[in-house]
């Protein structure tokens, strides 16, 4: 028998590491959500860039239900058909030769950082173990990934951190030149910093990072957990820049809402994860891989990718006009359907206020730090939903701006 639950149950029963909104969504369709009271929201948050095809997309529902009637789980002493099909599609669509499946972006990054160190130590000895990351980066919440991430607020308070991790400013090639050495195992970069403010890398920066990694025989790791699977307007953002990494991590949009992560790499690097070196009990789960295969089949088409670029322009032009009219935003930036409205000086630190006002107006948005309102909607969101959601968001902006 089901029991009625409310937001108050969170405060009574859940570990208090989150502070969720005061409403509970119960149903979704496309780019719309409805809460317990039947109130409708336009979803520009996308489960934090996860719901690549919105809610209850027919292709994903079909893939999940068909697979659920066949095979749910086997241990990694066996393989399975959905995992092999998905791996083949990812290899055929990218630079990669090999794929490792796990359950989340943090796990994909954990695998990437472990593999980078294993490769470096195997090929050059124990001294070659250092990892260089950037300030304000975000790579997950395991202890290793939160240490590589460049936001101390997430890593402070847990005791001694893993050693050999250095942080330098993002988009600053001179800082990398000063930090990199022959002891560097890997340089870890988000092509667009997501949690750090929806800040894209410059093309010259990423090309320079690639050259420095080559000079010092270090691996280049792209964290594409947030930018991957069409979010940028290409299947992966590295394709936008023409800069190829040695390791790439993917999650979020990959499963369209079903938990899955993947680490993609080259043949030469992959061989350093021999049998028994790393693993994941649920990694390559048939249900997850069947859904992710359906996501790739829908997203990796010229029509959908071109649509993402067009929708980017629709968002940016309207948000820019809002900023000009109200003075709330000093810049609108991002790539594809990962967009950040950077708050102007009088509104600095108030991203949460915009998020709260937006929910009140019937549209869900995100923040990326205290100074940026973030948008990460479905990649196939209809133009009519974009317009309706932006109408509602404009009401929220006017409310916060006191207009």
TrEMBL record:
Residues that coordinate or bind N(2)-acetyl-L-ornithine: 141, 280
UniProt cofactor note: Binds 1 pyridoxal phosphate per subunit.
Pfam families to which the protein is assigned, alphabetical: Aminotran_3 (PF00202)
EC number: 2.6.1.11
Major subcellular site: cytoplasm
Family matches, as Gene3D superfamilies: Aspartate Aminotransferase, domain 1, Type I PLP-dependent aspartate aminotransferase-like (Major domain)
Keywords tagged on the record: Amino-acid biosynthesis, Aminotransferase, Arginine biosynthesis, Cytoplasm, Pyridoxal phosphate, Transferase
Recorded metabolic or biological pathway in which this protein acts: Amino-acid biosynthesis; L-arginine biosynthesis; N(2)-acetyl-L-ornithine from L-glutamate: step 4/4
Localization terms from the record: Cytoplasm
UniProt xrefs under InterPro entries: Ac/SucOrn_transaminase_bac, AcOrn/SuccOrn_fam, Aminotrans_3, Aminotrans_3_PPA_site, Class-III_PLP-dep_AT, PyrdxlP-dep_Trfase, PyrdxlP-dep_Trfase_major, PyrdxlP-dep_Trfase_small
Annotated positions of the N6-(pyridoxal phosphate)lysine modification: 252
Cofactor(s) recorded in Swiss-Prot or TrEMBL: pyridoxal 5'-phosphate
Annotated GO MF terms: transaminase activity
HAMAP family reported in the protein's UniProt record: ArgD_aminotrans_3
Additional remarks: May also have succinyldiaminopimelate aminotransferase activity, thus carrying out the corresponding step in lysine biosynthesis.
Assembly: Homodimer.
Protein family per UniProt: Belongs to the class-III pyridoxal-phosphate-dependent aminotransferase family. ArgD subfamily.
Name of the featured protein: Acetylornithine aminotransferase
Protein species of origin: Chitinimonas prasina
Organismal lineage: Bacteria, Pseudomonadati, Pseudomonadota, Betaproteobacteria, Neisseriales
């Amino acid at each position: 028998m089901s029991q009625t639950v409310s937001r108050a149950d969170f405060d009574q029963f859940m570990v208090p590491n989150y502070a969720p909104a005061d409403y509970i969504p119960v149903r979704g369709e496309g780019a719309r959500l409805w809460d317990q009271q039947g109130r409708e929201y336009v979803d520009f948050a996308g489960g934090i860039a996860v719901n690549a095809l919105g809610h209850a997309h027919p292709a994903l529902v079909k893939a999940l239900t068909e697979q659920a009637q066949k095979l749910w789980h086997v241990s990694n002493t066996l393989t399975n058909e959905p995992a092999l099909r998905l791996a083949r599609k990812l290899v055929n669509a990218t630079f990669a030769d090999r794929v490792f499946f796990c359950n989340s972006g943090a796990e994909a990054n954990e695998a990437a950082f472990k593999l980078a160190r294993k490769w470096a130590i195997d090929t050059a000895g124990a001294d070659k173990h250092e990892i260089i990351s950037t300030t304000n980066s975000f790579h997950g919440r395991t202890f290793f990934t939160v240490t590589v991430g460049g936001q101390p607020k997430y890593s402070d308070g847990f005791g001694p951190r893993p050693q050999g991790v250095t942080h330098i400013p993002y988009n600053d090639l001179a800082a990398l030149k000063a930090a990199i050495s022959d002891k560097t195992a890997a340089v870890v970069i988000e092509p667009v910093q997501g949690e750090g403010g929806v800040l894209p890398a410059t093309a010259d920066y990423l090309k320079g990072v690639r050259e420095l990694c080559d000079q010092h025989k270090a691996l280049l790791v792209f964290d594409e957990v947030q930018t991957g699977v069409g979010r940028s307007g290409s299947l992966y953002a590295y394709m936008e820049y023409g800069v190829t990494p040695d390791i790439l991590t993917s999650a979020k949009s990959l499963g369209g809402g079903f938990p899955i992560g993947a680490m993609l790499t080259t043949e030469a690097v992959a061989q350093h994860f021999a049998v028994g070196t790393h693993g994941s009990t649920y990694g390559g789960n048939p249900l997850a891989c069947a859904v992710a295969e359906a996501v790739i089949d829908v997203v990796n088409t010229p029509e959908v990718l071109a649509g993402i670029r067009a929708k980017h322009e629709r968002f940016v032009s309207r948000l820019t006009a809002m900023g000009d009219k109200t003075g709330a935003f000093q810049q609108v930036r991002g790539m594809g359907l990962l967009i950040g409205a950077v708050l102007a000086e009088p509104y600095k630190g108030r991203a949460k206020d915009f998020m709260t006002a937006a929910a009140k107006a019937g549209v869900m948005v995100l923040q990326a730090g205290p100074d940026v309102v973030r948008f990460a909607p479905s990649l196939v969101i209809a133009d009519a939903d974009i317009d309706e959601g932006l109408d509602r968001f404009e009401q929220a902006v006017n409310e916060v701006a006191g207009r």
